[in-house]
Design brief:
Blueprint lengths: L19 H16 L5 H13 L3 H145 L1
GO molecular function: DNA binding
Protein name: HMG box domain-containing protein
GO cellular component, one term: nucleus
Length: 202
């Protein structure tokens, strides 16, 4: 018979061992929910407890008689269920306990492996990050070096332009000086000729 039940939930429902309170609660709960549809379960259960305490002796005696009759029937059903399924329930509970224990052991064993794999993945990420940073750093240095070289070239070009400009200005000034000197010499020569001509006339 046990082979037909793979899990404890597959067993027929076990009869509940009732108390006077649970018996009274099961009777009153549907009524109170109907009268108080918006009330919370905790409030309804508190009402049930209050109502049970406030029962008169006659009402309590009647409730007790009904409960005892049901308890006998329920107790007999519970005993029959236990005789029929008690051993099966015990084995299934032990089996479930072993499964839980095995699952926990496997989880504990897998944690170091997962941690090691996680560390390897993290180390790989760190290495990639370092390589990327080095690569970016190298690119940055290359760009900086290229920028410095371009600046040096621009300085040389600007210096050459300035030297050419200075040389051009010097040549222009030299030419002006020569022209002025030639003009001055011409004026002197012209003045000399005028004086000589004037002296001859006298």
């Amino acid at each position: 018979m046990s082979s037909n039940y793979k899990d404890i939930n597959d067993l027929p429902e076990k009869p509940k061992q009732m108390t006077l309170y649970t018996f009274y609660r099961d009777q009153e709960l549907p009524k109170l929910k109907q009268y108080h549809p918006n009330a919370k379960n905790t409030e309804i259960l508190r009402m049930i407890s209050e109502n049970l305490r406030q029962l008169s002796d006659k009402e309590r005696e009647k409730l007790q008689d009904t409960f005892q009759q049901l308890k006998m029937k329920n107790g007999k059903a519970f005993q029959e269920w236990h005789e029929k399924y008690g051993e099966i329930e015990k084995k299934l509970l032990e089996k479930r306990k072993e499964k839980i224990q095995t699952r926990q052991e496997n989880k504990q064993q897998s944690q170091p492996r997962q941690k090691s794999q996680s560390n390897k993945r993290q180390q790989s990420k760190d290495n990639k990050s370092v390589k990327t940073q080095d690569k970016q750093k190298g690119k940055s240095m290359d760009k900086k070096q290229e920028k410095n070289e371009n600046e040096q070239k621009q300085k040389v070009v600007q210096k050459g332009k300035k030297m050419n400009s200075d040389a051009t200005e010097a040549n222009r000034q030299k030419k002006n000086s020569r022209r002025q000197s030639a003009e001055k010499q011409k004026r002197k020569s012209a003045d000399k000729q005028k004086r000589q001509s004037s002296e001859k006339k006298k």
